[in-house]
Design goal:
By secondary structure, the chain is α+β, with helices and mostly antiparallel strands. It has 11 helices and 21 strands. The chain folds into 3 domains: 86 residues, 3-Layer(aba) Sandwich (Rossmann fold), CATH 3.40.50; 55 residues, Dna Ligase, domain 1 (2-Layer Sandwich); 199 residues, ATP-grasp fold, B domain (D-amino Acid Aminotransferase, Chain A, domain 1), CATH 3.30.470.20. It is globular, with a radius of gyration of 21 Å.
């Protein structure tokens, strides 16, 4: 694969047209890489930015096959895609990263857990169940988190079962029961690997989740942990991507227990919400690093330039329709505040409509400013 960064004849296909694809395109433009995207509607965030945009279903075998057959490299911005079609494309000579076998494993949280166990990667104890009847037989394992094996994301497909009274609302589907972890922090490491086997990871970050929405509200970089925890997290992330023999970018989400242990929660084989701050905070962003990895170029410097906080900008409760960004002018008057809007025409409650990164030499001051930004920006809709 020579000179992939030069010339307009190189075709990079992206399955999925959301905000991750949009920010990938914005990074690719700096290197004159043309990105061809496919999603179900032209109104998707990639719709107006892609070099070419194809309307299609990323879970349909025929649509994925037709879209990918003339691409030099094919990647994803969401892992829930048709893997059978990707395997056929790979067999026909199309470079697919992350590899279809990796996507197939990661699509299934049960297979993920089995992989960790087989490869001595630390993770919480678990049980695999097929239905609610098996859930009822696992009372001795409670309290636990029930996670659908397939299809869950951003807190969807996850249910906390404290005791047998909660079983009635459990999932009637193949799931895993994961022992509740008494954790101190939720952390994330983003790691990249190219075909040459070069591996580089970004500094550890700390995630603060919304207690009601079960998705990230704030991300703090760097994480407030010891150097020993940092080194251990980096080692685990490298171990996971190398044992997967994966090419591309991998987000490794971790629990730091009250006892000081690190446990892998789950992974995402793509650019990730826990890496958005890298656009401003690091020498190389996660989006550029993904491009470098899948085109087999040298990986970039992941060092932190400045501490920062990322805050997700969500649609306000009770508002549906054309998005209005109330308070935007107020926050951009502040030094070190960088707003990224995702180009989603329609807002709805708790929908990710953008993010803001807040830089400051003091991480505590950055946290203070980030909470100000969250309160100031209200994403509403015309009545």
């Amino acid at each position: 694969m020579k000179n992939l960064w030069y010339g307009n004849s190189f075709k990079l296909g992206v399955l999925g047209g959301g905000q991750l694809g949009r920010m990938l395109i914005q990074s690719a433009m700096n290197y004159d890489i043309h990105i061809y995207a496919m999603d179900s509607a032209l109104s998707a965030p990639c719709g107006k930015l892609a070099h070419e945009f194809t309307i299609g279903d990323i879970n349909d075998f025929g649509d994925v096959l037709d879209f990918g057959k003339d691409k030099d490299v094919l990647t994803v911005e969401i892992e829930h895609v048709n893997v059978d079609a990707l395997e056929e494309l790979e067999n026909s000579g199309v470079k697919v990263f992350p590899q279809p076998r990796v996507l197939r494993l990661i699509q299934d949280k049960g297979l993920q857990k089995e992989f960790y166990k087989e490869n001595n990667i630390p993770t919480a104890p678990y049980k695999l169940i097929s239905n609610k009847k098996e859930l009822e037989s696992a009372i001795d394992f409670l309290p636990a988190m029930q996670k659908l094996r397939k299809g869950g994301y951003d807190g969807k497909g996850v249910y906390k079962i404290n005791d047998e009274r909660d079983i009635v609302n459990g999932f009637e589907a193949p799931s895993l029961l994961e022992e509740l972890v008494d954790f101190d922090k939720e952390l994330s490491v983003i790691v990249a690997r190219n075909e040459k086997g070069e591996v580089k990871s970004f500094p550890l970050v700390e995630c603060e989740f919304s207690p009601t929405l079960n998705l990230v509200e704030f991300l703090f970089s760097p994480a407030s942990v010891s150097s020993e925890i940092e080194q251990s997290a980096q080692k685990i992330a490298k171990d996971v991507i190398e044992k997967l023999d994966m090419v591309g970018l991998l987000a490794v989400e971790l629990f730091l227990t009250k006892d000081g242990d690190l446990l892998v929660n789950e992974v995402a084989p793509r650019t990730h919400n826990s890496g958005h701050h890298t656009i401003e905070c690091n020498y190389t962003s996660q989006f550029e690093q993904h491009l470098r990895a899948i085109t087999n170029q040298s990986l970039g410097d992941t060092s932190l330039k400045t501490p920062g906080v990322m805050v997700n900008l969500l649609g306000e409760k009770n508002f549906f329709g054309s998005a209005i960004y109330d308070g935007l002018d107020k926050v951009i008057q502040h030094k070190g505040v960088y707003v990224h809007l995702y180009g989603k025409a329609e807002t709805k409650p708790h929908r990710k409509m953008g993010h803001a990164t807040i830089l400051n030499e003091s991480i505590e001051k950055a946290k203070e400013n980030a909470r100000m930004v969250q309160k100031a920006i209200k994403i509403i809709a015309k009545k």
